[in-house]
Structures are given as C-alpha cells and as structure tokens.
Amino acid sequence: MVVVGAVLAALFFVVPLVGLVWRAPWSSSWKVLSSAEARAALRLSLETSVAATALAVVFGVPLAWMQARVSYPGRSIVRAVTLLPMVLPPVVGGVALLLALGRNGLVGQYLDRVGVHLPFHVAGAVVAETFVSMPFLVLTVEAAFRSADQRFEDAARTLGATRFSVFRRVTLPMIRPSLIAGAVLCWARALGEFGATITFAGNSQGKTQTLPLFVYVTLEGANSDAAIVLSLVLVVVSLVVLVSVYRWLGTS
Amino acid sequence: MVCFVLIAAACGSSTKSSGSSPPTTPTTTSKLSGALNVFAAASLTEAFKDEKTALASSASGLSLTYNFAGSQALVTQIKSGAPADVFASADQKNMKKLVDAGLVETPKTFARNTLEIAVAPGNPKHITGLADLEKSGVILVLEDASVPAGNYARQAFTKAGLPAPKPASNELDVKATLVKLTSGEADAVIVYVTDVNAAGSKVEGVDIPDSQNVIATYPIAAIKASKNLTAAEAFVDEIVSGSGQQALQARGFLPPS
Fold first, then answer.
1. Which of these, A45, A145, A160, A186, could form a disulfide with A210 (CB 3.0-4.6 Å)?
2. What confidence tens digit (pLDDT) does each residue in B221-251 have?
3. Per the CB < 8 Å rule, is B185 touching A119?
C-alpha cells in the first residue's frame, strides 16, 4: 500500500517531465537555443538568480542565526512573516513589493528621489526573486543553527575567541552543508520565479524578461516550440545542480 | 448609443439561432441552460460580467463561468484541451489559430473596439498623442506584441509614421498593463477605449485620432468539443445579436458593423 502511494507520488513528478520531452522539437531545438532573445533571457536568468542567492545568503544567514539563537518577544511573528513568501501566491508578493518599493510606494517614493528605480529594471527582477526565494535559505539554515552543538562555540569562547570569530570559524563550518543546501534551494526557486517578477518588475527584454517569462510569452506566441525547448533547458539546469549538490552533501 | 442598444436588443429577440430550431422557440435564452465555460479576452471583463448578471434572470438554468486572460493565453489553453465551451477573442488572428486547428465552429464578429492612450489623472506628463509616448522621460508600458492590444498598438505607431515604440515593459493582457499605470510605475499605456471607461477616475484618456487608430474586431465561437454545444451556440447568438450587445455597448464597445 505504501509502495503504491510512493510510486504514484514519484510518477506525479516524472510524468510532466516526460510530457516536455515527448513534445520537444529536437530538430529545431538548436535554432531556438541560438536565438538572441532566448540567450538574453537565459543569461539574465542566471545572473539575477545568482545575485538573488548572494543577497539571500548575506542577509538571510544573520536572520536565521538571530531566529535560532536570540530569544526576543515577537520572534514567532517575525518567523511567520519572513516565511510568508513561501506560501503566498508569488503574484501577491509582487503586488506587495509594488506597493512598498514601486515609484509611488511606501519606501519606493524615496528611492525614486535618489534615482533608484526597481520596476522595469534588472534590480527589480533581483529584488522579486530574493523576496520569494530567501525564505528557503532562512528555513534551512535556521534549522542547522538550532541543531548545531553549542558546546563547541562555548569552548571557543572560553579559549578567548571573539563572538564574530566564533561565528566565522566554529559556527559557520558546522552548518556548512545546510548553508549550501539552503543556497541551492534558494537559487533554484529564484531561477524559476515568475509571478512576483512579472507583477513587480514587468516584462522587459534583457532587463526583467527572465527565462520563465520568456517561456510564458513564447508559449502563447507563434513559436511555442521555443517555449518547450527552453522549459527543458530550465529543467536540465535545475536537475543537474540539485543532483550534484545532494550527491556532494551525501559524500562529504 | 441608446439607439444602438435598442436596435441591437430588438434584433436579438427576432434573430433565429443557428441550427434548425422550431419556430416556436421564442429566444435563444431558452436554450441557455447547464454549465458553460466561457474563455474571453481580458478587455471583455466588465461587459461579460454585466451580461452574466443580465442572464441570471432571463436564463436562470445557466451556470456561467468565465476565464478572462489575454486572447493569446486562452488560445494556448484551449489548444491544450482546456474545457472551454465558448471562446471570445480580441482579434481575428488568435481566433484564426483555433479555426485552423479545427477546434471551433464558424466565428461571428460581435463587437469592435478602438485604442486609447491612458495616463494618470491630470495628465502630469502632458501627453497629447502617440508621438509624446516616444519622448525620453516618458515611461510607456504596452501589451506584448503577441497580445491583440499590443499588436494593434504597434500598428497605430506605424500608421502614425512613428518609429516602433520601446516600451519599458510588455505585459500579458490589457488589465495588467493598466495596473502598471494605476500603480504609478508607467506614465502612459495604450489600452482599449473600453478599458479607459472601466477604469473610471483612476486614469485619464487621451484620444488617438481615427487616422492613426486601429479598429479591433472581436470574434466569438463555440468550441466544437463542448459538452454543452447547444447552450454554447445559444450563448454565442446571445452575445452576437441578443442581450450581449446591450451589455457590450453600455461599456463602450462599438457594434459589430
């Protein structure tokens, strides 16, 4: 009974992939991949997703540490709010970003005065991706901070290491596998981001038209073959990264 | 306008529905029963919702569900087997894709629409025509060229002898485009006259002269694979020559011819 359920669940994920492969126009795929538009979208996707992951690591790791190690009133509310983008429809996240960081937004009106424009610019796509993907990193890393044995840190402290030195040389190495797993999950989510990006950053070729947006637009245009080929590219890139990282984590 | 409405309404009750219905059938609304999934262009949102309200009393056995999106998105969905009974497109091009694929019955034109520039209330950027939209410092947002309105908008620039526009963003339907204006990100957008009407005081319209404007014709057709084809055909007739005309023209659509 359990096996049947497991097989059905696995099939549920495998069949859509087979669907893509089944319909893929292999003969024309090279032509699609060499089109300037497609390459621009692919490059933009890689750049923005890496940038979003970097931002998520820089800001998400301190947040995860604080959530795991510092007890303060309202911590559970902060946790709920910071994990909200995982369960919110991304379009809703995009609307919220627009109202906060858009040209007439709560914060955005001041950004506009100092010449910072996010919608319709690459930075906007990065912000949208970071908003949606950072919770994946925070969640993973927070769990690692929680389960890491604090006695090693205490020992380092008694041996005279500063707080920052302990964090950098004891705590971080202990959570490294989780940090990498979290960063990869975060990156994969950023790479696939669609709803928040199109709502907040718009669909501007070379600036905010990432691969998922390009796939959606071409799927509806004249060239739906291109959409299938590029979907496969997205699948293959994500799959290769996920498999290799989990392998590496398993062996290290 | 009132004239049109009355004529259209009068026509509706006398027009025979497709097929060989017995002469005793008073109107198409008697065939309007069961569940219908209507896939309609985003620009039809308000008019079709009004029509649903109208039909709620005249065809109480009808359970109407709408799916509004860019016509090009709806075509993709229908081609992939989405359970649509009726498709209403904002252009002939997208309808033709389904005709060519043999998925729809013969389409009928049911409305026309024209384009209008929409700007923020008070027109802060002093937009007076298409040429102003290409000035630097004006953030223009259009629909993607695959969206009917986006295609028409680009045709309008060509008709006006202007270079191809470089929009800051290419949105996936007229409503999403309008949101970029009302949220303050865009200085100007091009949508249908009916969208400007529907947005009310949130936007201000700037006319595009007839010589530069493009007339959008809206075709509607029943989907051959519909499980409720009689009602689907009756709905098409109701839109083409029945109460649908009233709903459409009240929202600023032009009659089909």
1. A45
2. 999 999 999 999 999 999 999 999 999 999 9
3. yes
The verdict on A216 touching B (C-beta cutoff 8 Å) is yes
Instruction: Quote the CA–CA distance of A183 and B114 in Å, as a whole number.
Output: 49
Q: What is the chain B residue with the closest CA to A117?
A: B185
Contacts of B72 in chain A (CB under 8 A): 220-221
Enumerate the residues of chain A whose CB falls inside 8 A of the CB of residue B183: 98-99, 102, 104
Q: How far is CA B194 from CA A91, A110, A158, B158, B247, in A?
A: 25, 34, 73, 22, 12
| B170/A contact by beta carbon, under 8 A | yes
Predicted structure pTM score: 0.79
Contact between A102 and B185 using a beta-carbon 8 Å cutoff: yes
CB-based contact (8 Å) between B212 and chain A?
A: no
According to DSSP, the β-strands at B108-119 and B204-207 are antiparallel
The tokens for A231 are: 């979907």
Residue A252 has pLDDT above 70, yes or no: no
Pairing mode, strands B140-143 and B188-192: parallel
**Size of chain B in residues:** 257
Residue A174 burial (C-beta neighbours within 10 Å; 0-12, 13-18, 19+)? middle
- Residues of chain A by 3-state class (helix, strand, coil), percent to 5: 80, 0, 20
Contact list, B169 vs chain A (CB under 8 Å): 119-120, 202-204, 208
Closest-CA residue to B198 (of B221, B228, B178, B227): B178
Look up the ipTM and state it: 0.77
* Residue from A92, A203, A225 whose CB has the most chain B CBs within 10 Å, to mutate: A203
Euclidean distance between CA atoms B32 and A149, whole angstroms = 69
Element (H, E) at B220: strand B215-222
Q: Which of B72, B141, B145 sits opposite A202 (nearest CB)?
A: B141
CA–CA dist B38, B223 (Å, integer): 10
